[in-house]
Amino acid sequence: MYHIVYILIMYYDIRLLSLKCSFCFFFSYQDNNLAEFITEVMQYISLLDIERKLFVEALLQINWTNRSSQVIFTYKLFLQNLACMQTFHTNIVINCLVELFKPSKFYIYY
């Protein structure tokens, strides 16, 4: 799978539409496979520069909060590594995390 991850990272911008659709399978992807994929992506964090912004944005769309503890741990580690090693993406990482804490509806209580 290492070669597939590398290819996804290097050619994501070129095939944006087809790859963006392929990321939809992560929502039904088994937890152990998703954790493995995220772990492999972490090995290429040095490649996730400004030119790979769209790929990073797609990774940040993965629904990880209701997954197994293994996926949650791995994804949080990925977010930490990404924000520290590729500081260009720190703002979008923080924005995605803040979105998790927003209520789904705005209520006014009297």
Keywords:
110 residues, mainly alpha, 59% helix
Strand content: under 5%
The H-and-E topology, N to C, reads as: HHHHHH
Distance between the termini: 55 Å
Mean pLDDT: 78
Share in helix = 55-70%
Could you tell me the radius of gyration in angstroms? 15 Å
Specify the overall morphology.
globular
Number of strands: 0
Number of helices: 6
How many structural domains can be distinguished in the coordinates?
1
How is this structure best described in words?
The protein is globular. The protein has one domain. It has helices spanning 2-11, 16-22, 31-42, 53-59, 69-85, 90-101. The termini are far apart. Helix 3 (31-42) runs parallel beside helix 5 (69-85). It contains six helices and no strands.
What is the topological layout?
Blueprint: H1 2-11, H2 16-22, H3 31-42, H4 53-59, H5 69-85, H6 90-101
Helix pairs in contact: 3-5
Summarize the entry for a quick read:
With 110 residues, the protein is an all-alpha fold. It is built from six helices and no strands.
